[in-house]
């Protein structure tokens, strides 16, 4: 029995040595596909690389004007507010609108509270809508008021739909200045 084990062990060691030698031979005997290609020097007559940074051209006057039209953060506030205002889920119990109250004037908070108390959303089963702001346009800007029209893509879901229904709409937001902050005073669907 002991002799049988020794023979099996010797055969296994010999097979292992053959496999290792085969792998080493293949690894070192492999020809590189690039080795047969001629070497071409494409750097002839080129200026050496430098560490200089090229300056970008100045922005166009239209771009500067558009960026000056929006007070800092007003554009992103309008887009974010419109997305939350246009999104809902019957399972979330109007959390989207509750979250907007901190960014709303007392007039808009009253509108939100009235909408929540009279809404029929979700009474016939699951309903949801996801709004994504596509762009916005500054309609009016004074020191204390701004009107921004936000274009939205609306993805509507319900119990019986696998894929959402896609629609497009616009919401006009009227913002008022309250101290140093802007608050949404009115939102009108168009």
Task: Describe the 3D structure.
The protein has helices spanning 2-28, 61-69, 74-86, 95-100, 106-118; strands at residues 88-89, 127-141, 145-158, 165-178, 181-189. It has a domain at 68-189: Nuclear Transport Factor 2, Chain: A. Helices cover 36% and strands 28% of the residues. The protein contains 5 helices and 5 strands. Strands 1-2-3-4-5 form a 5-stranded antiparallel sheet. With 190 residues, it is an alpha+beta fold.
In short:
The chain has helices at 2-28, 61-69, 74-86, 95-100, 106-118, and strands at 88-89, 127-141, 145-158, 165-178, 181-189. The chain has 190 residues and is an alpha+beta fold. The model has no long low-confidence stretch (mean pLDDT 84).
What is the terminal separation in angstroms? 93 Å
Taken in chain order, the helices and strands follow as HHHEHHEEEE
Oligomeric state of the chains in view: single chain
Task: Classify the beta-strand content into a percent band.
Answer: 25-35%
Biggest sheet features: 5 strands, antiparallel
Spans of at least 5 consecutive residues whose pLDDT stays below 50 are none
Q: Which outline best applies?
A: flat
Query: Considering DSSP H and I runs of 4 or more, what fraction of the residues is helical?
Result: 25-40%
Q: Which structural class is indicated by helix and strand composition?
A: alpha+beta
CATH class of the domain at 68-189: Alpha Beta
CATH architecture descriptor of the domain at 68-189: Roll
Report the count of strand segments: 5
Please list the strands of the largest sheet in the order they lie side by side: 1-2-3-4-5
Structural Rg: 34 Å
Mean pLDDT: 84
| CATH fold annotation of the domain at 68-189 | Nuclear Transport Factor 2, Chain: A
Give me the number of helical elements.
5
Transmembrane segments: 7-28
Organism: Candidatus Buchananbacteria bacterium CG10_big_fil_rev_8_21_14_0_10_33_19
Keywords: Membrane, Transmembrane, Transmembrane helix
Protein name: Tim44-like domain-containing protein
